[in-house]
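User: Write out your own:

AI:
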Amino acid sequence: MKFLNNKLIRILLIAGALLLISGGLFAMLGPGSPTGDGEKKITLEIEPGTGVKKLTERLSEENLIRNPAYFRFLMRFTSSGQIKAGIYEINDGMSAGKIISIVTSGKVKLVNVTVPEGWNNRQIAAELVARGLAKTPEDFLKLTEDPIILKKYNIPARTTEGYLFPETYSVPVGYPLPAFQELMLKQFFRKLKEAEPPEGLSPDQLHEKVILASIVEREAVRREELALMAQVFINRLDKKMKLESCATIQYLFDKPHKKLYDRDLEQQSPYNTYIHRGLPPGPISSPGIPALKAAFHPTPTDTLFFVLKPDGSHHFSKTFKEHNQAKQEYLGGRRI
């Protein structure tokens, strides 16, 4: 009896081992197992109304599933969700079940668009082209001039310049451009409260502060100087002095110039603050929260001038004489 029990135990152990081995082989080579090691990747676009048959054919053509019939069986009898339209990233290291989970979950392929503080609309448009969300910069720039959008968000200007909030956005591949612009606009007004604006600002008053913040954003190198620089520009406005901001000149060029010369300061444009008094007609960049806060809450000072020093900070002066001395010291009298 003991001999039979030992023999039975050995048989059961061998059978169990065989089951484990066959199960492992089925998992690795069965009809629902991956077809590769994940090296092959495709962007799978599923249009609205795509059915199981069409999806299966596409995956089979790409050699991403082993058995079309088995895949259709899983889709119809084990999946609790419907195929969702979108763009997905699929690789051959995914099992049939994993692929089904992805295309029924709606977890589409995303693209990240990073808009740094201080970028203007032209730079944003170029980045959208680079990220595949726009075919040409003009496609996006036309949207920024849409009078319906400007009215919807109470922007008293010809474009949305300055109101497209700078940060990183993650959107599905193929995300509509109009929706992307509104995403940025909504984020601006959502985040604006962090800049602590005074209560009761009218759209025109807010616009003036956005213009000021956009200039300060481009002028300042060090964040700790933002509020001081904002007050310098306010002082010049109060005294009816020209702002003479190099940043407004740079805005006139598609690519910033390393140095500005006298001929650059003669550019005919309402944005040229070396020629025209007051604020330019619109913002010159997308300011971040620190620059907006500086425009709303500038640091009190009676200085009227500043000049860039080699270390990235600025020398602030109260008089034109002192300013000229600083220019000689730090710039040799040349423009920047």
In short: The chain has three domains: 32-108, 110-192, 197-330.
